[in-house]
């Protein structure tokens, strides 16, 4: 089978990783075009990976007949217009998380997906991590009975820049960091009914100037009464720590690890090891497997395993958690409308 | 220095462990009398440990001039009258947790402590566990900077009997199980301002018949805005799991372990170990150290490191969490009065 | 059943632990007499544990009709005469490891055991450690198939004093440290046919002055061709580390652990925990269980699970390993006679 | 800088991994030609990776002027003639381990390296594993003082085919498996003076028919008296387990791990995780980094960090260990001549 000719839009840090994966690591794809509004960057990355075409205008890529499918990893605020244009152009599309910061925008994309019938796959890469994938299989096989409590921890080893952390661009901690955990919550457990949350600026006081929080905790009640808790931190100084636990009626599954290098240093009264530096060290393979899955779905005409609706619903929980934290109340997730979040 | 002559009231499971500790494991004490309303049990335990006196009437023990100090580990509903009688009798007293199920009762004991000036020490044994004690030392030494998030998990491997779980005698999951974690929260972090909580009957459906929950999660806001979360489970099927984590501005400390026997069994594609069976396997040494500490405090005229006020405040958080879970709201801990909980 | 009246001979560090265990921790025993050639020490320990009789002459203890059984934990060079006198006095006897430094002495004790028919139990406490005991059960149950390779590591966190390390009193590293591992090798696998060994003074150069080694490795061939390896170190700076592994035809079992306090300290790029300080922290419970087992065997008329022959054979391997290391050759264990080692 | 045009000889399992790495994962290389005596295989692999030239005759590749450097991963018995031809053709060359099964052949290659002055790098990929590389850095930085004992364990989860295991093609367990460990021993500690060894057919009895062993242990004495031990097993049923330990005068470093997927499954009384399936899962990155290092050395005119002499010396220890195991004696490594092993 011929390789899928993929056009990649957005060449920031993650975009360049995707460029490498699409051009060299994924047997089912070739990188047929790249686009970035930074024309020089597009040219450079194109040259690095021998890409036939490098565009400064994403729209040109979307209408390039040599392109079979599109991967969008541009800044979040551009997702809506790019995704919608891609869907209209009938290009099977992959959209990086989060879908948008505003529920209305995400909802508009989901609506366009329905209207155009074009393939659209959301990017929640954790589902492709071998640990998470194995956990899902074990749970579906009944290994821990019925999961009744979902617990998730996400910690970044250092805070983002103020420009990045600004909730106007990041969505704030519950959306920026939490959306991965809220997606996992839905994947493992189903729909969330209500959220309560607390948060604060406790370690990186400068974050207060832009209105973000550095530590936050949300408790979830699922539609059927089961329970969840997500704690988020931008001050996991020791390293990048992503841990998830499913407590079931016959056992528990825990996913996550702290050690990067397989080495123990044992000195007087101490055994020590290093930690996972950051997300790319932890999830590099998940990112690759995610795009490989996208390519296979397109090539074989399979439905998207993660649809835009999943993006909408994970975002909705993030918006609800933010509101719960702001107000101190219990927020009904489904009362969060598609209006401005 | 002569050994402290201790009178022990209450000879249930934990009482008999205390009998053994006071008579054989603690160099500073001798077990001078036991009392239990079950006269035959008192006689048997007395004989087993060569105790000079065995009473069926605790009051007689309290007024026995040969007794230097009293350890009360009788059923919770008897704590108030026994503690108050002991204080009036001027016997330095140790009271097992929880102090009471009703805040008013605990408050009355604290008031009696003040009024009589008699030494009274609350039993929260986790503070004496070598892991928790080491963590406290490290944190006080600044090893992780300022702790900003408190996380605690307590899981029992199986549910209690319905008779035990009945909130009328246990106080419900937030008090019965959570009081240890709420005490740790105060010990490590300070006073709690407000609580939000969720809970349910998810694994042991029979608990619904008595009105208890088997899984519950509470999020805490401390008085100065720092954060905490406690998750409790009566369905930790794999084993007894008590884990606590302090996330600080320069590092994190985690206390807890899963493995009981130091043995790995490695078979095809699997490495496995056993788990901690239950609380006595996990905290046997903490229980002993706690009574040893009590004895030393009495012998050396030191103040109680855990006062009845600590019992009152931990109970107050448990009551607040229960109310928060019942109502779905955010409950101000200090608005919880000393009236019927 | 009445408690076994035990007489304890030898009140050094381990002797005092045994005094505590026999008088307070073991339900089946009472400490009826202590003896030490240091009369003042005997008096003090006797007073501490309310022991009826304290002797400066072990022989007097051995002939005290109030004594049901004898525990000998005096210096190694005294074992032979004390054990033989105890056997002649028809006192069931427990003898701490090693039985002797000279095979001829150990053999003489074994011969006296046969001749007198008096109960004699050797002290190899690791067999009573819950980890080792669980491993034995699993292996006997076929969990790893047939064990074919035995691996053992023993490391002390610091060297002994020169006086202690002197092979004239310690036997040298293969006997002093290795005898535990050689006993385990026999327990798990059966008789050893031949030994090859290397060793050196690599870390504590002062040990060369007395002729001991600080690091040594022995490879074992069992009688049926199966294999073993034991590595010993007096320079395990990080902590006390005792690890044993059985590699079987269907799996592997590993016994041992490094962490003492259940606490992880997670600071920038590092996760660290403490280590086991020394043998008493690691094996305290094994020591107690061992004496409890001795008492039960005597009380119930059961044969000794560890006989003097086991002491002889473990010592024989230690002697063979020492000779192999001295000569660089492969030493046939059974060619090691009972003459001077 | 232009990419290094690499010609790859040998397209077995590992050869195809190298084809992928050289063509897609290593920024400094392009795969300019492949060769395999199986012409169809050469054609297929060439097509898969868009390689300009595919040869059935390795010699043609060696004389192709478009080729800058050569990677040889063909069967061991072909190494000598191919390496020597490549050196004569002045192509910088990478040779997969083992260099040869006969010391004389390896010595001939080392001699050709000296004579021709052509760059030649031996493949011992473990040195490029992040764990081993980090350990080397830590040790060189003095983190554990001076390493005095080297310990290594290598276990395969299942035996090779009889055809593969036949010592005539594999060299036997001490060469086939042990050569990696012997190379590490030299890398971390220096030259080995003498070896003693034991081995047997204990688990896979069919291996006896070809004269290989499935379990073996070698003890090493280094030239300066320091010590080492290597245990090898073809019956590590639980998984692929490569563990190395350096015991130093101030601490210890341990490299290795057992868990593949970051998931714990916790069921009644059990916590379990999976294991590393086999060498490619464990060392995939090391293989890539090794070839990347080769390319950089060639491009930048750096000397080979692992020379043919390293191959010769590691092989010499393997030959000595085999002889020691065969004879039961202590074998002087440097007395092992370059004649037929």
Note the topology.
The structure is a homotetramer of 341-residue chains.
Chain A: E1 4-9, H1 13-25, E2 29-35, H2 39-48, E3 53-55, H3 58-62, E4 69-72, H4 79-88, E5 93-96, H5 103-116, E6 120-123, H6 130-140, E7 147-155, H7 162-165, H8 167-170, H9 173-176, H10 178-189, E8 192-200, E9 215-222, E10 227-233, E11 241-248, E12 252-255, E13 263-267, E14 270-273, H11 279-300, H12 308-327, E15 331-332
Parallel strand pairs in A: 1-2, 1-4, 2-3, 4-5, 5-6, 7-10
Antiparallel strand pairs in A: 7-11, 8-9, 8-15, 9-10, 11-12, 13-14
Helix pairs in contact in A: 1-11, 4-5, 5-12, 10-12
Describe the protein.
Four copies of one chain form a homotetramer. The first copy, chain A, is 38% helix and 25% strand. Chain A is α/β, with parallel strands linked by helices. Chain A folds into two domains: 4-125, NAD(P)-binding Rossmann-like Domain (Rossmann fold, 3-Layer(aba) Sandwich), CATH 3.40.50; 127-284 and 314-335, 2-Layer Sandwich (Dihydrodipicolinate Reductase, domain 2). A seven-stranded mixed sheet of chain A has the order 12-11-7-10-9-8-15. In chain A, strands 3-2-1-4-5-6 form a six-stranded parallel sheet, with helices on both faces. Chain A has a two-stranded antiparallel sheet with strand order 13-14. In chain A, β11 and β12 form a beta hairpin. In chain A, 61% of the residues are buried. The mean pLDDT of chain A is 96. Chains in contact: A-B, A-C, A-D, B-C, B-D, C-D. The A-B interface holds A 148-149, 151, 155, 194, 196-200, 202-203, 215-217, 219-221, 225-227, 229, 231, 233, 235-238, 247-252, 328-330 and B 148-149, 151, 155, 194, 196-200, 202-203, 215-217, 219-221, 225-227, 229, 231, 233, 235-238, 247-252, 328-330. β12 (251-255) of chain B pairs antiparallel with β13 (263-267) of chain C.
């Amino acid at each position: 089978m011929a390789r899928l000719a993929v056009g990649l839009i957005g060449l920031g840090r993650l975009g360049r990783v995707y460029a490498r994966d699409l051009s060299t690591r994924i047997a089912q794809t070739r990188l047929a075009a790249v686009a970035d509004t930074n024309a020089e960057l597009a040219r450079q990355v194109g040259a690095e990976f021998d890409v036939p075409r490098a565009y400064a205008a994403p729209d040109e890529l979307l209408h390039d007949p040599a392109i079979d499918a599109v991967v969008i990893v541009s800044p979040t605020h551009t997702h809506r217009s790019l995704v919608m244009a891609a869907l209209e152009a009938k290009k099977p599309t992959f959209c990086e998380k989060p879908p948008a910061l505003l529920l209305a925008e995400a909802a508009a994309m989901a609506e366009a997906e329905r209207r155009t019938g074009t393939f659209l796959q959301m990017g929640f890469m954790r589902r492709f991590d071998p640990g998470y994938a194995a956990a899902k299989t074990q749970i579906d096989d009944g290994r821990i009975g019925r999961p009744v409590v979902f617990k998730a921890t996400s910690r970044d080893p250092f805070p983002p820049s103020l420009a990045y952390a600004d909730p106007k661009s990041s969505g704030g901690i519950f959306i920026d960091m939490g959306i991965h955990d809220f997606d996992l919550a839905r994947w493992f457990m189903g729909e969330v009914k209500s959220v309560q949350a607390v948060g604060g600026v406790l370690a990186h006081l400068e974050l207060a100037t832009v209105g973000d929080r550095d530590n936050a905790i949300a408790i979830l009640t699922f539609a059927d009464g089961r329970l969840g808790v997500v704690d988020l931190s931008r001050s996991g100084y020791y390293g990048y720590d992503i841990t998830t636990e499913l407590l079931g009626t016959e056992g528990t599954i825990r996913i996550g690890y702290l050690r990067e290098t397989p080495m123990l240093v044992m000195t007087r009264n101490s055994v020590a090891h290093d930690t996972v530096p950051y997300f790319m060290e932890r999830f590099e393979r998940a990112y690759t497997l995610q795009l490989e899955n996208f390519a296979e779905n397109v090539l074989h005409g399979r439905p998207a395993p993660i649809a835009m609706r999943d993006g909408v619903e994970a975002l909705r929980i993030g918006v609800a958690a933010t509101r719960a934290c702001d107000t101190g109340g219990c927020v009904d997730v489904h009362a969060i409308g598609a209006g401005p979040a």
